[in-house]
Amino acid sequence: MHWKLADDEYDRYKKRADAFFDRGDYLNALRQYRNCLEVPTYENDPYAKGRIALVEKLVKLREEAHKALNAGKGEEAAGLFEQIVMENPKDSITKVNLTDYWTGEATRYYEQQNYEEAKVRYQKALPYATKPALIQLQIQNSEAFIKLKADQNRKAEEPSKKAATGSQDTSSVARSKPNNLIDSPEKTKSANAATRNHRLGPKLLVGAVGLGAGAYAYSLNKQYQTKLDEVNRIGKMTDPDGDHIIMTAGEYDQWQTAYNEAKDSKRNRSKFVASLGVVGVAALTEVLLLAIPKSRKSTRISIESSTQSLGLGVRYTFK
What we know:
The structure is a single chain. The protein is mainly α. The protein has a domain at 1-70: Serine Threonine Protein Phosphatase 5, Tetratricopeptide repeat (Alpha Horseshoe). The chain contains eleven helices and two strands. The protein has helices at residues 2-23, 26-38, 46-70, 74-87, 92-111, 115-125, 132-165, 170-176, 185-238, 249-266, 269-291, and strands at 299-305, 312-318. Strand 1 (299-305) and strand 2 (312-318) form a beta hairpin. The longest helix is centred in the middle third of the chain and has 54 residues, at 185-238. It starts with a helix and ends with a strand. The model is unreliable at 169-200 and 294-319 (pLDDT under 50).
């Protein structure tokens, strides 16, 4: 009977420890694995001892990663986080750290319109994301803007190429032209298609801007909520009694790091509000582009910086 009670107690500690370990909650996992060694006849249990050694290694790696982040060495921190995930592929906490870091870097390049670098970093975040659909959307947006820039560059180069190759005798060309020029049906059809494509281009571009701004706003809000949840989780773990006293320096450093990250993320709330404004402006602009018939008058829709608040303003003008 005594041995069965000891086995049951060991199994309870082991089950709790494994659950904490799988989530990446290494401090609680360490406590439970040590409890396993306190059970009679399990003082030298090889499983618990092996896990304690591994957890201590992962705790040290996580501390080094957060120190690197605080020192502005983001890629070094990401490398340390990746080592943790290699040791424990189920670690959801570290996967969130990696997702937040790479999406944050990608968003910074996206804001600078450096879509090639943004795409690379979104792709690095993708394997660790719990909701990959949003990141895949941002990758698609980046690819769309990369293609748009390439098309614009190609069109800008076409006049110079034509000027370089257009050296034929214009007088002979003029003599060979008929007196009465009549547009063929094919030419008229081509011109109409070009007009439709000309109007379709702004609609697609505005749609891409709206999607990108919406995804960016969602990403900012998601990052803030994740950081806030992490502070609350670590607070409960390091101060289970709720007396606002954290016993060890290592636990206090972990809580302080999480608190600072949440505070930094909260400062991005103004960008979140501005992004929602951009989504609204883009939606309104698309409605105007779709609803307003093509007029013989000169009309123009422009998106400009708002003079009254953060965000963009839409202007429709005609002559």
